[in-house]
Design goal:
Blueprint: H1 14-24, H2 32-42, H3 44-66, E1 70-81, E2 90-104, H4 110-177, H5 183-217, E3 221-223, E4 229-231
Antiparallel strand pairs: 1-2, 3-4
Length: about 230
């Protein structure tokens, strides 16, 4: 809603209607299948949902790894030298050397088992959320495409009605000029033409909104810094 003072002078740009008419004549080359595929590839919220599943899967792998036994190879060495403390005088033959294994057997893994169970539960939750997001996106895209096609058909019908109204007014003007019609019929034709023109504009706006909503729902609508929009190239 524009909060403008009532005395503000505003003038509509007729070029905007021409731009909308250019948009409405664009062919929508999407089928339900290709539109859904585009949404799965381009929608950022769906990509985020997929990333959450991958993160949950990694956490399960890490938690499962913590349940296993740990075996570490440890060793130490101590070498003395002559009083001069020179490298060449190190007495390796009299050094002290140790080598052994350090094992952490999975005898008490309650905390790790709980962490693993939580990771598995979280993974299942993320998978269900992913499936739910995919189903919702598919429904949104199908509905948006149906709405777009319905608005396109509505615009086509309104354009036909406008042409009929123009023909009717032209006929009434010709009849009025030769005295075969009256002022009332002429005014009715003019009113019908005005109504048809308004209906075309409303239908044009509705179609444009439906088109933008469709491109938004499949994830290819990008708003540029200047506030204008463009369709991403696939």
């Amino acid at each position: 809603m524009l909060t403008l003072p009532t005395d503000t002078e505003a003038e509509l740009d007729p070029n905007e209607l021409e731009n909308l008419e250019t948009f409405v004549t664009m062919q929508v080359d999407y089928t339900p299948e290709t539109a859904i595929e585009a949404a799965m590839n381009w929608r950022l919220d769906f990509a985020t949902s997929a990333d959450r599943v991958e993160d949950a899967e990694r956490k399960v792998i890490l938690a499962a790894d913590d349940l296993g036994a740990e075996l570490n190879l440890i060793g130490s060495a101590g070498v003395s030298s002559t009083p001069d403390n020179q490298v060449g005088r190190l007495q390796f033959h009299e050094g002290t050397y140790t080598l052994g294994l350090e094992a952490d057997l999975p005898l008490d893994r309650k905390a790790e088992r709980n962490a693993y169970a939580e990771a598995v539960i979280s993974l299942e939750q993320q998978r269900r959320a992913y499936e739910n997001d995919r189903d919702n996106i598919e429904l949104e895209v199908r509905d948006a495409l149906r709405t777009l096609k319905a608005q396109a058909e509505g615009y086509r019908i309104q354009k036909m009605a406008l042409e009929l109204a123009e023909d009717r007014l032209e006929a009434q003007e010709m009849l009025f000029d030769i005295g075969q019609s009256d002022v009332r019929l002429l005014l009715d034709s003019e009113t019908a033409l005005l109504s048809a023109q308004n209906a075309v504009i409303r239908s044009l706006v509705d179609f444009t909104i439906a088109g933008l909503s469709f491109y938004r729902d499949i994830g290819v609508l990008q708003v540029k810094p200047d506030g204008m929009w463009e369709e991403l190239v696939q």
